[in-house]
Write a structure and sequence with these properties.
single chain; alpha/beta; Aspartate Aminotransferase, domain 2; Aspartate Aminotransferase, domain 1; two-stranded antiparallel sheet; 11 strands; binds pyridoxal-5'-phosphate
Amino acid sequence: MPGLRVPFLDLSRQYAELRDELVSSATRVLDSGRYILGPENEAFSAEFARMHGAPFCAGVASGTDALKLSLEAAGVGPGDEVALPALTFVATATVVSALGARPRFVDVEPDSLTMSPEDLERRITPRVKAVIPVHLYGLPARLDAILRIARSKGLAVVEDCAQSHGAVFAGKPVGSHGDFGAFSFYPTKNIGACGDAGAITAVDEARFAAVMLLRDCGRRPGARYDHIVASNHSRLDELQAALLRVKLPHLEEWTRQRRSAAARYTRGLQGLPVSLPPADPENGRHVYHQYVLQTPERDALAKSLEKRGVGSGIYYPMPLHRLEAYRNLGYTEGDFPEAERAAKEVLSLPMFSELRDDEIEAVIESVRAHFS
Ligand SMILES: Cc1ncc(COP(=O)(O)O)c(C=O)c1O
């Protein structure tokens, strides 16, 4: 019995609102003739750093590169291991492999689905050099406990902030707790570019200097063809930086809208046999990149939503240790029980800042109808 159709995500609504500003910013860059490492990148990086409470920020080509350059700047290389959650987007692990290091997976907590600090402690080996807490779905990982463990063992901490722009833990924005924060501006993120783009926030000047070298062919600062480390480049281009500058002043309002949609879902879905997303951590803020239910009836629920014209998504249907790409690590089913269970039970409801109240109500009604 289909009612109002609700898309899982509709980027065209935001584009329609910002179209004129985006076009004029793009035109400004095209007319300028300056396309790489110019004033737009610099201004965006400064604005983004300020917003995330970090003294330093470098614009790079993607969230994947943000993670990879951060690990590289922290000294991760062949023979090292990096601890990361078994439930995340694959890039959190592939960057480790790309550096010749080995991902050391860690199970997630059943409610938050972020890295379990207790499991982290159990799984650390003497080869682990860094840890990547992922603020999955916009919810900060338990950074206090993770940082305590990492500091006691001398590990670098790279926060994967790809899904958590503007999220807060213990009164401070994510990306300013660890050594580095790696952000993605993939178009579907809470703030998205019109292509691939990313950024690295850093708190330590020397470590930031290492990132700046690595993102630009190891070029000596201020020099042209004097390269002091062997590195590729990965730079946020001027066009994407200018488009992101149009969007950045809206991020706080978009976050408010996501949180208000989430609160409406949470009110409307009480009493059903599903786990709802955890509330804000104390003195913190969930930014709801995704609004994720957990239910053993996940596949049936997704089907009934589809029948009613309601979009949904699964992030992620396979924990990383079960991917063919990581078969070589020798993990088996049962090694990360919570990540394995979550991969079978998570379902994301429509969530974007332009989602309308009548659409949220239609989603709630459709979920309730499935269980009635
Ligand atoms: C948790 C997580 N890490 C890393 C990435 C990689 O970001 P990008 O797609 O910008 O390379 C993403 C985005 O897809 C992500 O969701």
